[in-house]
Amino acid sequence: MTDAIKIDVWSDIACPWCYIGKRNLENGLAATAADDDAPVVEIEYHSFELSPDTPEDFHGGEVDYLSQHKGISPEQAREMLDRVTGVAAEAGLAYRFDILQHTNTVKAHELLHFAKENGRQLELAEILMSAYFLEGKHVGRDDDLIALAVEAGLDEDAAREALTSQRFRAAVRADQEQARQFGISGVPFFVIDGKYGVSGAQPVEAFTQIARQVWGERRESVETADA
Fold it and tell me: CA-to-CA distance for 186 and 18, rounded, in angstroms?
């Protein structure tokens, strides 16, 4: 029996291309489900903070944030947001930058590590990104994050303890250090089976192709060993 393909994903909750990449990855893998020998895949998310200096409560909209932090004009910022909104729509995601609440994401990353420990990381990753990009919810404050954790099926008191104790902060930093060692400077970044690096929100077909390729390599390896 062939072991599952491991896909490690470095991403940030506040990265618009990361949510698009996440959805394209999922749709790409779904396209292999009808294969006679469909790939078995295990996905794990890793922490990457695009803007660690962002305050918990940023006063202003997304245009203001981009203008201040990227040194571009409001017009250029709006053009950027219009472009990414269009790409997101192609992936089936209705981004709402008009209601988005920009915030620091380190606590969200800590909560993702807590969710991983409890077998709910994939569920929480989807809920956090949807809350941020589609629903205009705050994903930087304890109470808001704990409510989202409960929505993902996690225990409320345990989630609160995980955040207040900051016991997963070291795991967040370890992910970031691993990213530096891999030379990852932007996200999303996908490491397939520990040997293939895929950067950016690739199209659905790219993920379908690489899943089939790696699964085929796995199958050949098993068959050769059996022979």
Answer: 10
The half-sphere exposure of 197 on its side-chain side, counting CA atoms within 13 A, is 10
For the domain covering 5-226, report its CATH number: 3.40.30.10
Q: Express each pLDDT in 107-158 by its tens digit.
A: 999 999 999 999 999 999 999 999 999 999 999 999 999 999 999 999 999 9
Residues 108, 128 contacting (CB under 8 angstroms): yes
CA distance 167 to 44: 19
Per residue in 143-152, pLDDT (tens digit) is 999 999 999 9
Look up residue 69 and give its two tokens. Answer: 């932090």
Would you state the pLDDT for residue 69?
85
Nearest to 211 by CA among 1, 2, 32, 36: 32
Is the link from the previous residue into 74 a cis peptide, with omega within 30 of 0? no
Give the residue-averaged pLDDT of 54-65.
Answer: 93
User: Is the Cβ–Cβ distance between 48 and 179 less than 8 Å?
Assistant: yes
Domain map (residue ranges) of the chain: 5-226
Chain centroid, CA 41 distance in Å: 16
